[in-house]
Write a structure and sequence with these properties.
The complex is a heterodimer of chains A (319) and B (265). Chain A contains 14 helices and two strands. Chain B is α/β, with parallel strands linked by helices. Chain B is built from ten helices and ten strands. Chain B is globular and about 55 Å long. At the A-B interface, α7 and α8 of A face α2 and α3 of B.
């Protein structure tokens, strides 16, 4: 079954690039390392949105799963003292996928703006619950204690960085495998013509449901990783609608062309925001928004299209 | 015919908010029969096709497929039992190539529960896709994106996608609509030969009486939601009611029949 990926160039290049990125963690400054961790974590969520976007579905409420992932880590830490990274990630992914599975029964019936707005509504329900309930941290949230990896407590952030890079690679391999299967190819087929898919004998609702659960699981993983890297969760920085908007923002900026694009988008966004904040603390959103406008005007298929053009040029000069 | 009919439709009715689109339709179609469905626009032909293939649920009546009740079946289940269809407006995946369209169709048709996790471009699917493309004479367009194809080629692709699961009953809604005159007969030749080889029953909606005369074993003429004639073409096309309400003045053999009849649709 996995022979689908044997000849996959994306996986090979991505593995090499991410290995180099992980090694760079040994020499780069701490603030760059932090930004890369945040960018890669967000990239996981954007990969989840990309899976939906390929079918023409945009969710304005993925902060729901981002929040579920992040709060799973925080609650496990606060109430059960769980600090192990694998356990945190595993439970967060399972919880997000489970909620995604349940809500999927409703959301799979909707398309377009209705899908987007219903997703937003669900995420704001979670936001409301978190803000109102003292036991869940209310507006202050929780701080998250430093992570351990199989009982070992790292001195630096480098091992966590490597773990995030590894998670990104695993996610890329899984999503690329999914997109290469018949089920994954239905992604474009459903966007083109739902009626034909039904008449061929496959349930469009089921295909969208599966896609939605995959997307939820990836975004849950993103939330868990970001919470661990930041060491803090609160409703405004994890579950509010602005976070959903941020994820959609990065998705558009990155482009739907490739499974690696979300991570590039995530990292670019993190640095763009850092510099924008430094240059114009009062108006950093203006710079970030301007950058998105420039990308929409000049690179309608996102940052990834730069790589596509470069590769086409290299191929052209070889030929 | 002693054998069980491929399709048995009993007292089928459909109404939309008080308007009757199908009224007491009773039809039997034997295995391997080729049946032409004729009627003016709004006569209920497409409603009939839509009810059999599960796109519309009948208000009352039953539909049996080889003795099995399939009334109100879901479209995807219709495909599984062996009732497939093409559409008046081709329903293909416009952003994919001809080859990819057929690969997806074949991969879903061959799904045994695990096949959805395999690549649609695997060798056995590729080989079958090529065979189908040759059979439907669209092989030369294999790498063209469906959205860029001519109407005729897209129709052929649409029908090829409808037959991937080897249906026992195939319903074609105006297979030659929007297609040039030269292409019409070519399309029908290909489709009818392919279906006869498999012994499948074909019901197709058609406005062109030359095509009806040439290909069908039986004609079902619809008028205002009712079947007004069910007979072999030689008989049906001479039936006064069919001439008056379906064929219209353009084809009317006698001046009396042409008077006041609906125009040829």
């Amino acid at each position: 079954m996995l022979d689908i990926l044997k000849t996959d160039k994306t996986i090979r290049w991505a593995a090499l690039a991410f290995l180099a990125l992980a090694l760079s963690g040994l020499v780069i400054d701490a603030w760059i390392l932090n930004n890369l961790m945040f960018g890669l974590a967000r990239g996981l969520a954007v990969l989840g949105l990309l899976v939906l976007w390929r079918t023409g579905l945009i969710s304005f409420g993925h902060a729901l799963y981002f929040g579920i992932g992040a709060y799973t880590v925080a609650l496990l830490d606060t109430f059960a003292g769980v600090t192990d990274l694998v356990l945190r990630l595993g439970v967060a992914v399972a919880a997000s996928a489970a909620i995604g599975f349940l809500l999927g029964f409703i959301l799979r019936k909707y398309r377009g703006i209705f899908f987007a707005m219903l997703s937003l509504a669900f995420s704001m329900v979670l936001y409301g619950i978190l803000v109102k309930i003292e036991a869940l941290g209310s507006t202050d949230g929780f701080s998250v204690s430093a992570t351990t990896i199989f009982g070992w407590k790292p001195e630096t952030k480098f091992p966590l960085f490597c773990a995030i890079v590894a998670t990104a690679v695993v996610a890329i391999v899984c999503v690329q495998f999914y997109l290469r299967t018949t089920l994954g190819h239905l992604t474009t087929a459903i966007r083109d013509n739902e009626l034909r898919v039904e008449y061929l004998g496959y349930s469009v609702a089921k295909a969208i449901h599966i896609k939605y659960v995959i997307s939820a699981a990836l975004t849950g993983a993103a939330g868990a990783m970001l919470a661990t890297a930041l060491g803090q969760v609160d409703p405004d920085s994890m579950v509010n609608w602005t976070i959903s908007g941020e994820l959609v923002f990065i998705t558009i900026m990155a482009g739907p062309g490739n499974v690696v694009a979300p991570f590039i988008g995530g990292i670019v966004f993190e640095f763009l925001r850092t510099y924008a904040f430094e240059w114009a603390p009062q108006a950093w959103q203006l710079i970030v928004g301007g950058a998105l406008l420039a990308i929409i005007f000049f690179l309608p298929r996102g940052i990834w299209s730069i790589f596509e053009k470069l590769m086409a040029r290299i191929k052209g000069s070889q030929g | 015919m002693n054998r069980m009919p491929a399709l048995r439709v009993k007292d089928l009715c459909k109404s939309f908010a008080g308007i009757t689109a199908a009224r007491n339709i009773n039809v039997e179609a034997g295995a391997g029969e080729i049946i032409g469905i004729i009627g003016a626009n709004g006569a209920g032909k497409t409603v009939f096709v839509n009810m059999i293939t599960g796109y519309l649920k009948p208000t009352s009546g039953t539909i049996e497929f080889f003795g099995k009740d399939i009334t109100g079946i879901e479209p995807r289940d219709a495909a599984h039992v062996g009732v497939c269809r093409s559409f008046q407006v081709s329903q293909v995946f416009m952003s994919m190539t001809v080859r990819e369209n057929l690969a997806i169709a074949l991969a879903i048709a061959r799904d045994d529960g695990r096949a959805m996790l395999k690549a649609p471009g695997r060798p056995e699917i590729r080989a079958e896709g090529e065979r189908l493309m040759r059979q439907f004479t669209i092989f030369e367009h294999r790498d063209a994106v469906a959205g860029a194809l001519s109407q005729g080629v897209r129709k052929l692709l649409d029908i090829a996608m409808a037959v991937v699961s080897n249906p026992k009953v195939l319903l074609l809604d105006e297979p030659t609509a929007g297609v040039s005159v030269e292409e019409k007969f070519a399309i029908m030749d290909i489709v009818i030969v392919a279906m006869k080889e498999k012994g499948a029953t074909v019901l197709f909606v058609e406005h062109d009486m030359e095509i009806v005369e040439r290909y069908v074993d039986r004609v079902l003429a619809f008028y205002q939601g009712e079947v007004i004639c069910d007979a072999p073409p030689a008989e049906a096309l001479k039936d006064p009611a069919v001439i008056e309400y379906v064929i219209g003045s353009g084809r009317a053999p006698t001046p009396t029949a042409a008077a006041g009849s609906p125009s040829h649709a």
